[in-house]
Amino acid sequence: MDDWRIERRDRCRTPGAARRRPIRPRLGLGSGLLADAFERCLRLAEEMAIHAIEVDAIDEEAKACYVKYGFVPLLDNPLHLYMPVATIKQAFGP
């Protein structure tokens, strides 16, 4: 089995999308799920007019995590963040 796939013994402990899809190498579960969300967003952006991804961080620690990946806080609510689809396209390439 490829080293980037979830081991069979770990599948029962892994939630949702990560159980069905491989996680990228050297990424934690949260990072892998975020990468999966980005890939899904890019596929949808080919069919729909999607400008950005929005997230509502539950606290400052979660906000710091999203900011680390390039999300930008909105001016009216610092726990409400967004990332333009163009930024995601640059990160994932063509």
Characterization of the model:
With 94 residues, the protein is an alpha+beta fold. The protein has helices at 16-20, 29-45, 60-68, 85-92; strands spanning 52-56, 72-73, 80-84. The protein is 41% helix and 13% strand. It has a 3-stranded antiparallel β-sheet. A hairpin with a 6-residue loop joins strand 2 and strand 3. The chain is globular, with a radius of gyration of 15 Å. The protein starts with 15 loop residues before the first helix and ends with a helix. The model is unreliable at 1-25 (pLDDT under 50).
Condensed summary:
This protein has helices spanning 16-20, 29-45, 60-68, 85-92, and strands at 52-56, 72-73, 80-84.
What integer value in Å does the Rg equal? 15 Å
Question: How helical, in percent, are the residues?
Answer: 40-55%
Strand content of the residues, in percent?
Answer: 5-15%
Number of helices: 4
What pattern of helices and strands is seen along the backbone?
HHEHEEH
Please give the order of strands in the largest beta sheet. Answer: 1-3-2
Largest sheet: 3 strands, antiparallel
**Overall 3D shape:** globular
Helix and strand composition category: alpha+beta
Distinctive features:
alpha+beta; 13% strand; disordered N terminus; single chain; globular
Outline the secondary-structure elements:
Elements: H1 16-20, H2 29-45, E1 52-56, H3 60-68, E2 72-73, E3 80-84, H4 85-92
Antiparallel strand pairs: 1-3, 2-3
Helix pairs in contact: 2-4
